[in-house]
Amino acid sequence: MNIPSPACPQCTLDDTRLEGTHYVCGVCGHEWPAEDKPAHADDAVRDANGTILANGDSVVLIKDLKVKGSSTTLKVGTKIRKIRLSGGDHEVDCKTDAGNFMLKACYLRKV
Predict the structure, then answer these.
(1) Which CATH class is domain 1-37?
(2) Prediction pTM value
(3) Counting CB atoms within 10 angstroms of each CB, which of 1, 16, 39, 96 has the fewest?
């Protein structure tokens, strides 16, 4: 039983082979480890205290946040209910009295 080698991440061609602990592309010569471990083994979104956040949680702001492009400021202690987790730099999508915002989890604390 022969396990097929993955396509090259650089040139996307299938002409790859396993040499020791690395895959090598026969076309472009690119090498990468055979065991690709993700950069973050734990992809959980964590608040400022390190508590794991989930969809539907309630959180509190731990710092005043100025809203870019507006004179609005989200005040420390503002409670936000029913958060949604999203990918990217701003992990939390939420709705407040001031509107809908994307926030970084490092400025939040789980209630």
Answers:
(1) mainly beta
(2) 0.61
(3) 1
